[in-house]
Amino acid sequence: MTTRWMPRPTRTVLSAALSAALxxxxxxxxxxxxxxxxxxxxxxxxxxxxxxxxxxxxxxLDGNGGIxxxxxxxxxxxxxxxxxxxxxxxxxxxxxxDLASFSLDFLLDVSRVSVDGEKARFTKTDGGHELRIxxxxxxxxxxxxxxxxxxxDRPARHSYAGERNWLASKHExxxxxxxxxxxxxxxxxxxxxDKALVDVKIRVPNGREVVSNGKLRGREVGRRSTQWHWSxxxxxxxxxxxxxxxxxxxxxxRHRGLPWLVAVSERLSKGDQAASMRLMRKTPKxxxxxxxxxxxxxxxxxxxxxxxxxxxxxxxxxTRPTYPAVGASATSLVVHELAHQWFGDDIAVxxxxxxxxxxxxxxxxxxxxxxxxxxxSADAIMRSYYANVDASSAFWQVVxxxxxxxxxxxxxxxxxxxxxxxxxxxxxxxxxFWQVVRTWIREQRGGNGSTAELEELAARVSGQxxxxxxxxxxxxxxxxxxxxxxxxx
Length: 489
Hints:
Elements: H1 16-27, E1 32-34, E2 37-39, E3 48-49, E4 67-79, E5 84-95, E6 99-105, E7 110-115, E8 118-119, E9 121-125, E10 130-134, E11 144-153, E12 167-168, E13 173-174, E14 197-205, E15 209-212, E16 215-221, E17 225-231, E18 243-246, E19 248-255, E20 258-265, H2 270-280, H3 283-294, E21 302-306, E22 322-323, H4 331-339, E23 348-349, H5 356-372, H6 378-388, H7 411-428, H8 430-444, E24 448-449, H9 451-462, H10 467-475
Parallel strand pairs: 3-6, 4-14, 20-21, 21-22, 23-24
Antiparallel strand pairs: 1-2, 4-5, 5-11, 6-10, 7-8, 7-11, 9-10, 12-13, 13-18, 14-17, 15-18, 16-17, 19-20
Helix pairs in contact: 3-4, 4-5, 5-7, 6-7, 7-8, 7-10, 8-9
Cofactor: Zn(2+)
Protein name: Aminopeptidase N
InterPro entries: Aminopeptidase_N-like_N, Aminopeptidase_N-like_N_sf, Peptidase_M1, Peptidase_M1_aminopeptidases, Peptidase_M1_dom, Peptidase_M4/M1_CTD_sf
């Protein structure tokens, strides 16, 4: 899924010789590739309707069956005063089975869909979350295709899975949320299992800024509006893609060769703007600190953005986390979101039940930062949790390794997830623990990780039978006993 997109004409003009060769091949019943789209002599005999979900039990409609997306080219226009979004997204995908139809996750009103330049039929199903596309011809397994979806709507009208995620005022908008955000502003295969390259163009009224993932590739200034073009060099999970539009102060530079860019909303008070910019400027140094434990930062650029809106949380958007205004001293929050660039972004979860791998690691790295910057040790923080949270607390009743959709972001997933990692550190020793962490990063880089894979790795690297240890910490809804085997001697 790391194939980079290339501009493609809507119509391919064949030379006479190539036309003759194509005709001969089709007559022989062969499959012939033209550009990056595969033409077949006849429709697949066993074509099916791709599933409406990728198979995650927490949100059965997330993602879709039968497709693998390589890239999204998003070209949107956003009107801040009316909160109306319109645009077109071009999707490069591969059919992973013979498909009569397939779905994308998308909430907005759609006016047109094409597949390989030909008009395709489409319907909205499952409460408007699924965009079901039926191409003029069935798609053969292994063939690559270009899908273009055109749309216009007010995203704030829509909800999914009990979520109303469009965060906007008449002066600013920011598309930040988890586990779902993409379907409010571009059609996607919306699950962590399908990473893709994301290229974002957003047109807004002149005088307003747009910030997104990756690098600023350019601006096109018109009479009344400006198009901002951003793209990231590495594939990402759909919910990690974002854009913010409004009035922002922007600073950038390089730290040890790594480009950084940060932004702060000018809708904040002067005091909050200054404090937020001081916090955002810490970003490159925090990355350098994390690299001492985790190895090289996994992406080609880093940054952060503080919104003037009130999301109530920060989020690890790839290469550029998003934050509320929290003051200049909230370094631990920056550590948490930047640790996610390794744990959650570069290594995404395989299923949402594996969420502790994201939040537990990011929280543990907060503790580690405190430990290495003059504060309490991570072990002391873990033992404080253990001593001060009564066994009857709901904190111990969450099954951290499979919390359920309703508790996927429960505090226990963060706190007990981090405790499990520190307890593992106590159990296997500091040197082996960091070998486990670095091996995990190396072996899973750019992909997806599961709890079972981490358990196997920890046992392999440590040479210990850790089954009972992980059962206690991840699968038992009770306070672990204070034993050596549980890392609590």
